[in-house]
From TrEMBL:
Family that this chain belongs to: Belongs to the D-isomer specific 2-hydroxyacid dehydrogenase family.
Known catalytic reactions: (2R)-3-phosphoglycerate + NAD(+) = 3-phosphooxypyruvate + NADH + H(+); (R)-2-hydroxyglutarate + NAD(+) = 2-oxoglutarate + NADH + H(+)
Protein name according to UniProt: D-3-phosphoglycerate dehydrogenase
Source superkingdom: Bacteria
Major enzyme class: oxidoreductase
Pathway: Amino-acid biosynthesis; L-serine biosynthesis; L-serine from 3-phospho-D-glycerate: step 1/3
Function: Catalyzes the reversible oxidation of 3-phospho-D-glycerate to 3-phosphonooxypyruvate, the first step of the phosphorylated L-serine biosynthesis pathway. Also catalyzes the reversible oxidation of 2-hydroxyglutarate to 2-oxoglutarate.
Keyword terms: NAD, Oxidoreductase
EC number: 1.1.1.399, 1.1.1.95
Length: 302
């Protein structure tokens, strides 16, 4: 949630916070600007007064961007403001998929009342043995702020990093992250990498890009990470790939009925940007963008 001091500078101009509690467009009557995090705005009727919407986050798939463009409503996002928060959760996801930290913790919680838990633990720990990520190949699909940060961090942990992004040149990718050794085609990422992480926006062209055809090209036992958007992955094809061993683990930040509870899936409830730092960075960036637009007419993503 945004701090009041962030809102103050433009409060006179009228600014609405749109979140799950603010379902009705009446809540936004008279507002010039709307700040939104993850609430879906597609079904709401936007009051005439709204001139600008700022998404406190990178993805804008919860905002009807096309309708906004037709009505002349400016839409901002906050690129990079939460990238470090997401990067850290991706790293945690890679480690959780490689070491059975969750299984070990659950075992201790279950057996905590056993007097000889230490002896029991020595006997049981074999079942929680894992593997190391150092030396493994990581494929990063999408080399924006998050992808580049993941590349640098994974490289520092000793991984061999491959990157793919159709929208940036090899030089640009190299400048973003000096640790990407090769920029390869998607097929090469699929066929060579032990870990694959997706960092692309949800667009018509990227929807279900990880489908059966893509999964079939991947190495047996690949670990797939999706902290971008759930609809990038065809979840039926994914479940099949998990059940036949093609995918060893799917780590995702998007909980739903299909993925929750499957033993090959580690799922968190969209926590990537849920850190004090990321929330503050996004809020401040969004408010600055909105203020600069309302006060100076500037349309500039920070
Ligand atoms: C993003 O698009 O950056 C995230 O969805 C932000 C969030 O978790 O709210």
């Amino acid at each position: 949630m945004f701090q009041y001091h962030c809102l103050n500078p433009i409060a006179e101009k009228g600014l609405g916070l749109f979140d799950e509690e603010y379902k009705k467009s009446e809540d936004l009557q008279e507002c010039d600007a709307v700040l939104v995090r993850s609430a879906k705005m597609h079904d709401m009727e936007l009051p005439e007064s709204v001139k600008v919407i700022a998404r406190a986050g990178a993805g804008v798939n919860n905002i009807p961007v096309k309708d906004c463009a037709e009505k002349g409503v400016v839409v901002f996002n906050t690129p990079g403001a939460n990238a470090n928060g997401v990067k850290e959760l991706v790293l945690a996801g890679m480690l959780l998929a490689s070491r059975d930290i969750v299984g070990g913790i659950e075992w201790v919680a279950k057996e905590k009342d056993q007097e000889d838990i230490d002896k029991l633990a020595e006997k049981q720990k074999k079942q929680f043995a894992g593997c190391e990520i150092m030396g493994k190949k990581l494929g990063i699909i999408g080399l924006g702020a998050i992808g580049a940060m993941v590349a640098n961090a994974a490289s520092a942990l000793g991984m061999e990093v491959y990157g793919y992004d159709p929208y940036i040149s090899i030089d640009a990718a190299w400048n973003l992250s000096r640790t990407i050794k090769h920029i390869k085609s998607l097929d090469e990422i699929y066929s060579q990498c032990d870990y694959i992480t997706i960092h692309v926006p949800l667009l018509d062209s990227t929807k279900e890009m990880i489908n059966k055809e893509a999964l079939d090209k991947m190495k047996d036992g690949v670990v797939l990470l999706n902290f971008a958007r759930d609809l990038l992955v065809d979840e039926d094809a994914l479940i099949e790939a998990l059940d036949n061993g093609k995918v060893k683990k799917y780590v995702t930040d998007f909980a739903n009925h299909t993925v929750a509870g499957h033993k090959g899936i580690l799922v968190t409830p969209h926590l990537g940007a849920s850190t004090e730092e990321s929330e503050e960075n996004c809020a401040v960036m969004a408010v600055k963008e909105v203020r600069d637009f309302l006060e100076n007419g500037n349309i500039k993503n920070s």
